[in-house]
Description:
Layout: H1 3-12, H2 14-20, H3 36-55, H4 72-77, H5 90-105, E1 115-121, E2 126-131, E3 137-142, H6 156-172, E4 182-187, H7 191-201, E5 212-217
Parallel strand pairs: 1-4, 4-5
Antiparallel strand pairs: 1-2, 2-3
Amino acid sequence: MNSTFVTALSRALPTVGRSCQIRAPAFRLTRPFSSTPAILENAKEKTRQIEREILNTPAEKQPAQENASFSAITKMMQGEKVRPNQGVSRDYSRMAESLEAELINQPYADRSPPYHLHVYCHKHNTILTLTRPNGDPMLAKSCGHLGFRKSKRSGYEAAHQLASHVFGQIQERGFLLEIKRLEIIFRDFGQGREAFTKVLLGNEGKNIRGLVCRVTDSTRLKFGGSRSPRVRRLG
């Protein structure tokens, strides 16, 4: 047929012209060597089968529109609460509820705020202060409380006796029943620093060092600031 005649006929009768138009075969609209959709469907089906085996859930109980929703394992990893009617075993749901109840009843079971034992090791004295997590003091002792005077307060022996005395007071006053976690905070580098460490690691501190959860150094560091006093020269 003449192309001009076909064009005129298609303009006059659109319905007749549609049947005369050349259409591409159906096999040309598909990619001949593409098998990606089938592979993806097989992989998804295998994943669902593995999830069913892990969760001990029969295949007929799976939701009809499973492709549009997340899987049970994905919901578990995202932290959602999964109920038994969503395809998860009752044992898992009971375990999750018990863990949730335990966290609500004991929110600070393993992460309770620690008590603090401040060890101020000055070059002229050693001061030990035990405080609650909010900073309230419970016990404060220095070498002067044990009878050491003037330059004797800065010695190693005075700090050693002070640490032993403070550990004994903590046990006698029943603070060990209250303290669950203890943080030791050192300050400065006097002789009392090493003496306190020896007592803590010795026989006197066997009931204290098991409570230590953290050791911190809060020594003051000066960046600039005022001019320091001159260095003392002897001789």
